[in-house]
Design goal:
CATH topology: Rossmann fold
Order of helices and strands: EHEHHEHHEHHEH
Number of strands: 5
CATH architecture: 3-Layer(aba) Sandwich
Oligomer: single chain
Largest sheet: 5 strands, parallel
CATH class: Alpha Beta
Structural class: alpha/beta
Number of helices: 8
Number of domains: 1
Helix content: 40-55%
Radius of gyration: 16 Å
Shape: globular
Length: 217
């Protein structure tokens, strides 16, 4: 399906556990706001009131044996509400939306991690997102041993309790997706690179790709 055009811009951050998405999103949003851009940040799951309840279920480590189809449907329900309540209205107003995880996460975790058919997830992603696609996706890649240590430093959620093989399959799926869409998905290695270096590179990508009009460093 052809990508819809909106007044605003939609930037998503993706990657394995512990890649540093939250930090980079906060830095980028602050940088853009300081330069006069209208920016909002959000996340999946949990970008709406309904989504927060869904997120609590999905990440609760006491629900480690939740059925994989139940998990998938909860993610899709969260997204449908998120797009209609937050993302779509903001884009139509001309706002820059920066989101922590979106449809690429569903593809990586549900196809790579849970082994669902890719064609099924593609169809469900299209349905749950109302066809809203990112203008740019920053994929923050990280080695499992480094990422999982970062992610579980303060708290361990249900996905972080999964075995290493699960996370390695997800990471490989992200790499496969990036190879298919190199213009949209830009990959950055966060295993050893410093936070400030990564942020500078993200800003350079925005400038090079002309994602935001009037953008300069």
């Amino acid at each position: 399906m052809e990508k819809k055009i909106y007044k605003g811009k939609f930037i998503t951050f993706e990657g394995p556990e512990g890649g540093g998405k939250t930090t980079q999103i906060q830095l980028l949003a602050g940088y853009l706001k300081d330069r006069g851009f209208n920016v909002i940040t959000s996340r999946e799951p949990g970008g709406t009131g309904i989504g927060i309840s869904v997120r609590n279920i999905l990440l609760d480590p006491s629900f480690i044996h939740i059925d994989s189809r139940t998990e998938l449907m909860l993610f899709l329900a969260d997204r449908a509400q998120h797009v209609q309540e937050i993302i779509l209205p903001a884009l139509e107003k001309g706002t820059i939306v920066i989101c922590d995880r979106y449809t690429d996460s569903t593809m990586a975790y549900q196809v790579g991690g849970r082994n669902f058919p890719e064609a099924l997830i593609e169809q469900l992603n299209e349905f749950s997102s109302y066809g809203v696609k990112p203008d740019l996706t920053i994929l923050l890649d990280v080695d499992y041993s480094v990422g999982i240590k970062r992610a579980t430093k303060l708290y361990t959620d249900r996905f972080e309790l999964e075995k290493q093989q699960f996370h390695e399959r997800i990471r490989q799926k992200y790499h496969d997706m990036q190879k298919k869409e190199p213009e949209r998905i830009r990959i950055l290695d966060t295993t050893r690179n410093h936070i400030e270096i990564i942020q500078k590179t993200i800003r350079q990508i925005l400038f090079e790709e002309k994602i935001i009009g009037g953008f300069d460093d």
